[in-house]
Specification:
Shape: globular
CATH topology of the largest domain: Rossmann fold
Radius of gyration: 28 Å
Number of helices: 11
CATH architecture of the largest domain: 3-Layer(aba) Sandwich
Helix content: 25-40%
Number of strands: 22
CATH class of the largest domain: Alpha Beta
Largest sheet: 9 strands, mixed
Distance between the termini: 95 Å
CATH superfamily of the largest domain: P-loop containing nucleotide triphosphate hydrolases
Strand order of the largest sheet: 6-5-7-8-4-9-10-11-12
Strand content: 15-25%
Structural class: alpha/beta
Number of domains: 3
Length: 469
């Protein structure tokens, strides 16, 4: 009897023993582990007490629920920031009470862009508060003078405490606040140092509450990890309304703002900028940055049209094929995925009759463009075949199509927009898959083919396969 009582007591103590849970996704486990088994985050599993169900008392609502048709839509009317490319990504401007997270690598130009946004917002007569936790007020003032970002309605505060930041909000009464950055702001209401999981979560929740209560737009700067992901808990992206990614090549001035999440507009738009000595400049027509001046036809080059979100951009692919310099052939790429290029080379040799197994192949893009769109497969294949055979792709022709392992050409989405962009920029022909669904365009020729070896027959001769007017 006594042993049975001890057994029951041990079971009760085991049931009351606290467990472990992930602070980012809520995954639970009976013992501590270094990595969450659900979201795969490191160091996010912490000890928690046994879950208890509590009865939540019912309280009277402060405002009655109304039919959705009676809600005033004017209260959520957008306001333009004055930066057209950013407005494009936001879906037409800032909605009152919106919270935007702008994430990017160090040195990419996040602070410069948002200081420009704050200045243009202030120059339109809207009171703006710029909070910096990474720089002193004097340092921000120097950059504002260099980039012509001075305005009477732009207020500047160098703070790292959330309570003090909220005090500035009550005193200034801005319609837009920029926080640079969320990892430098802390609060005594949460454990840990600024930038930690608990701190970032609590500070962001506090900014979201004040933004919704006052109808004030808030733009938060966020850091990224070495893997390119947004630093901090994943809950951060759920708390905000809009998530934007700001990226670009460190050795090039070209920058892109990509929409990752947008509750008030499309989440696949792209804005283009160029980082110059006097600040950041909008690039409304970036296609020319990724192509060379079209003149005399040159072997080893081909132009394609890639889609960045909903935006068509021209990009030029260059290839060089030469004798092997070692025991094994070299495959060097820049701006394109190396494994995808290797697949295209294998298809060219197997189904296109292009000998490449004993030759070095170099493939690169122009202007630092990064091609991840499968529609660039055909342009890569044509550039490599052109370099191998010393034949040319006509300079007024673009190549659009995904290349399959069986040597077939597959249609790609948005081909109508791609063709229209090429035509707008002065091109007169396009190599497209046989099944491409595209409408006729005046003064523009479509060369259709379903197999890569048929397309290569056109190379160097300019002879159409199937001409569609």
């Amino acid at each position: 009897m006594s042993s049975a009582c001890h057994s029951v007591g041990d079971m009760a103590r085991a049931a009351a023993k606290p467990g472990w849970a992930c602070t980012e996704c809520g995954w639970t486990t009976a013992k501590w582990v270094g990595r969450c088994g659900e979201c795969q985050a490191w160091g996010s599993v912490s000890e928690v007490g046994a879950p208890k169900l509590k009865q939540i008392p019912v309280s009277a609502p402060s405002a009655k629920a109304v039919p959705i048709g009676r809600v005033e839509a004017n209260e959520a009317r957008r306001a333009l920031t004055g930066v057209g490319e950013l407005d494009r990504v936001l879906g037409g401007g800032l909605v009152p009470g919106v919270v935007v997270l702008l994430a990017g690598e160090p040195g990419v130009g996040k602070s410069t862009l948002l200081l420009e946004v704050a200045a243009r917002w202030a120059k339109r007569g809207h009171r703006t508060l710029y909070v910096t936790g990474e720089e002193s007020a004097a340092q921000v003032r120097l950059r504002a003078g260099r980039t012509d970002a001075l305005a009477d309605e732009l207020y500047l505060a160098a703070e790292s405490d959330l309570g003090t930041v909220l005090g500035h909000v009550e005193e200034v009464g801005p319609s837009l606040m920029v926080v640079d950055s969320i990892q430098t702001i802390g609060t005594a209401e949460a454990e840990g140092s600024p930038g930690g999981v608990s701190q970032v979560r609590e500070v962001t929740a506090g900014l979201v509450r004040v933004a919704k209560r006052r109808g004030m737009a808030v733009i938060i700067v966020g850091h990224v990890t070495k893997d390119g992901n947004i630093a901090g808990p994943r809950l951060l992206e759920h708390l905000v309304d809009v998530v934007l990614s700001f990226d670009g090549d460190r050795h090039s001035g070209f920058r892109m703002v990509r929409g990752v999440k947008n509750r008030f507009g499309p989440a696949d738009e792209v804005g283009c900028f160029e980082l110059a000595e006097h600040g950041i400049v909008e690039v409304t027509d970036p296609s020319g940055l990724f192509t060379t001046e079209r003149g005399e036809a040159t072997a080893g080059t081909c132009v394609t049209v890639t889609l960045e979100g909903q935006r068509p951009l021209l990009a030029e692919v260059q290839a060089l094929v030469g004798p092997i310099n070692g025991q094994h052939p070299s495959r060097v790429t820049h701006g394109v995925d190396r494994s995808r290029v290797q697949m295209i080379l294998a298809v060219l040799q197997r189904h296109g009759g292009v000998r490449l197994h004993d030759r070095d192949v170099y493939v690169s893009t122009v202007g630092g463009a990064r091609l991840t769109d499968p529609a660039a497969d055909l342009a890569i294949a044509m550039a490599v075949a052109s370099a191998s055979r010393n034949a040319v792709v006509q300079p007024d022709t673009v190549a659009l199509g995904e290349l399959g392992l069986a040597g077939d050409l597959r249609r790609v989405p948005g081909i109508g927009r791609r063709v229209a962009e090429a035509h707008r920029l002065g091109f007169h022909a396009a190599l497209v898959p046989q099944a491409a669904d595209v409408e006729d365009v005046d003064d523009f020729r479509l060369y259709r083919s379903g197999r890569i070896h048929r397309t290569l027959e056109w190379l160097g001769e300019g002879r159409p396969l199937t001409v569609v007017r």
